[in-house]
Amino acid sequence: MCLAVPMRINAIDGFVATCEACGIERDVNLFMMQGEDLAIGDHVLIHVGYAIKKVSEEEARLSWDAFDEILSDNA
């Protein structure tokens, strides 16, 4: 099973974006998103350090809510 986490793009430098989700920042590789129109503020799904798909802010929020629910059930 694969897991992709939505993150918000805060900065872009070539094929590297600084992304954030729930207070955690990571540098993410954009190589697989060549040709996509990406900008600061966009949300992307991250899998093993690579952005793989652009998603809406609502899709990202729904994913974060689902992760929070799963984690709260296991606490």
* Biggest beta-sheet profile: 5 strands, antiparallel
The geometry reads as: elongated
**Fraction in beta strands:** 35-45%
> What structural class do you assign from the helix and strand content?
alpha+beta
What name does the CATH topology carry? SH3 type barrels
| Unreliable sequence segments | none
> Which sequence of SSEs, written as H and E, runs from N to C?
EEEEEH
Major beta sheet, strand line-up: 3-2-1-4-5
The CATH architecture comes to: Roll
| Helical content (DSSP H or I, runs of 4+) | 10-25%
Number of domains: 1
Mean pLDDT: 93
Number of helices: 1
What is the number of strand segments?
Answer: 5
Rg (C-alpha, Å): 12 Å
CATH class: Mainly Beta
Fold and architecture overview:
This protein is α+β, with helices and mostly antiparallel strands. The protein has a single domain, classed as SH3 type barrels (Roll). Helices cover 23% and strands 43% of the residues. It has 1 helix and 5 strands, in the order βββββα. It has one helix spanning 57-73, and strands at residues 5-13, 16-21, 24-29, 43-47, 50-55. Strands 3-2-1-4-5 form a 5-stranded antiparallel β-sheet, covered by helices on one side. A hairpin with a 2-residue loop joins β4 (43-47) and β5. It is elongated and about 40 Å long. The model has no long low-confidence stretch (mean pLDDT 93).
